[in-house]
Each structure stands twice: as structure tokens, then as C-alpha cells.
Amino acid sequence: MTEPSPAVAAAIEGELRLLDPAVRARAELLAELLHPGFREIDSRGRHWTRETIIASLTADDAPRPGPLTASRMHGVRLCADLVHLTFDTEARGIRSHRSSLWRLTPQGWRLYFHQATPFADDPSAEEWGPGAPTAGRAG
Description:
Elements (H helix, E strand, L loop, with lengths): L5 H13 L2 H4 L2 H7 E8 L5 E3 H9 L10 E11 L2 E10 L2 E12 L2 E11 L21
Parallel strand pairs: 1-6
Antiparallel strand pairs: 1-2, 3-4, 4-5, 5-6
């Protein structure tokens, strides 16, 4: 397998930082990683902005789910200032497919958009990423 481009590597590094419970609990660390225009659709279909997600994650009574385990991370540089990541996470038996868009800013790569979709094992589901079969896939 080839090494990711520097842009994809930076987005992956940022994404992995965001999965760290210590980062998720500190507003200043989240603010460094989230683009000012950040939006999210979470695994329950709720919409979040940069301000609302930072407030929710750092609240004194915020649930602390522990670490999220990431797998099958794949990134593609779509243009000079945009990287798309797809990956799966698991925490306490809950699994989600995730999709993130990272934008390059003067301060570095920042998470611009994120969406999570819960899933259960499905042996007939198509795999994403390099070498995945393309039959039946649109586009």
C-alpha cells in the first residue's frame, strides 16, 4: 500500500486527534481542529455547528464515551484545499460509517463537514477504498 499524500496524512492526523477523548473534552483543542464553517450530521440525524458541538462535547455533564476505535480509513484529495476521508468507528459496541471533509486554511487543515451513519455487520455490503470492487457502484 502506498503512503498517503501529505494533505491526506494531515487530514488523517486531525481526524485521529478528534477521536481522542482528551481532545474532545477541551474547547481550545477542538477549536484548533474545526473550521469556522463546520457542520455535522451525527449518527442520530442531529445537525451541529462548530459552536454547538464544542459546547456539547466540553460541557461539565457531557457523556464521556471513552475512546473511539477507527478502522478502514481512506482519504482522497479532491482538489488543492479539500480532502475527503471515509472510515468506520466503534465505541461500546456502536459502529458507524463516517465521512469527513477537511479544508486547508491559513492555519492548516480544518474539519469542515462530518457525517456519521450507524451500521450493523452486513456481509453483502460493498467495501470502500483502493482495490474495492466497482461493479454496481454509481459514478
